[in-house]
Amino acid sequence: MKQRWLSRSGTAEVLLVFGGWALGPGPFESLEGNTDVLFVDDYIRLDNPLSELSNYDRVTLIAFSFGVASAAHWLAQTGVRPDRLIAVSGTLHPADVERGIAPDMIRATADQLSTASFAKFCRRAGLEGPAPEIDIDTAKAELHAVIERGPAPDPGFDRIWMPLRDRIISTSAQKAAWADQQEAVRTVPTAHIPFASGQNWQEWIA
How far apart are CA 91 and CA 87, in angstroms? Predict the structure, then answer.
């Protein structure tokens, strides 16, 4: 796992953001707020304890896309217990025919990965602006790690956001994955990346 601070001023609360595959912090950079924000991604290994979290009175975790399962695995390994858990555009079964993306499709994405195919992925995901730089070998390794790691234990998400026009992890797969947690689900009429300029973090935490 890699980490970087998107905002750090020494507030009492921190937002811990598990990003999606290879997208970096771009999808979140337009969100506004007054709390510290620690962004993590690169899920080849989930062995970063993020010890900085102990400095905060309150921790809210927001997990996006493949970050949902990765965050759940990380929580189980570390024993960290955030005060609130938010899932966005993802499931606990990332490599799954019915509740995520078919493993064969993920492998094909890895095998055929190029800067051109990644740019197409970013457009399908709804990323505004140009695709971020990508390390092809690292991105391939991360996809294979997601497959091999398998489904994640359920940490009990307080809110689950589900886009209705998701072309990455289909809406039908997300509905199947969260069928027994309907009370936590909220839908949004967006693509896979649902965040928009002018929004704030609090809207997604609520």
Answer: 8
Classify 47 in phi/psi space as left (phi over 0), alpha (psi -120 to 50) or beta.
alpha
Q: SS3 letters for the chain?
A: CEEEEEECCCCCEEEEEECCCCCCCHHHCCCECCCEEEEEECCCCCCCCCHHHHHCCEEEEEEECCHHHHHHHHHHHHCCCCCEEEEECCCCCCECCCCCECHHHHHHHHHCCCHHHHHHHHHHHCCCCCCCCCCHHHHHHHHHHHHHHCCCCCCCCCEEEEECCCCCCCHHHHHHHCHHHHHHEEEECCCCCCCCCCCEHHHHHC
Give the separation between CA 175 and CA 170, rounded to whole angstroms. 9
* Per-residue pLDDT tens digits for 60-74: 999 999 999 999 999
Interval 139-179: pLDDT, tens: 999 999 999 999 999 999 999 999 999 999 999 999 999 99
- Are 146 and 72 contacting, i.e. CB atoms less than 8 angstroms apart? no
Burial 26-44 (b: 16+ CB within 10 A, else e): bbbeebebebbbbbbbbbb
pTM above 0.90, yes or no: yes
- Residues near 126 by beta carbon (within 8 Å), at least 6 away in sequence: 190, 191, 192, 193, 194
